[in-house]
Amino acid sequence: MQQILAFLKNNKGATAIEYGLIAALIAVAAMTAMSNLGGSIKNTFATVGKKMDDSATTAPTAGTSKQ
Asked: Membrane-spanning residues where (predicted)?
């Protein structure tokens, strides 16, 4: 009977489950944030890359400046 009462008073398992639930919630929040930011970051890099390509085609080549 003492062992059953000791088992019922033990809260270590409940604490571990709570920490697991918190970790899962943080993981879901992080995945959602990354998913939402992923598209805008991709668009930003695409825009910067396009501008760099455009400037590379219009910039004078080294040693060919007009005098």
From this structure: 16-34
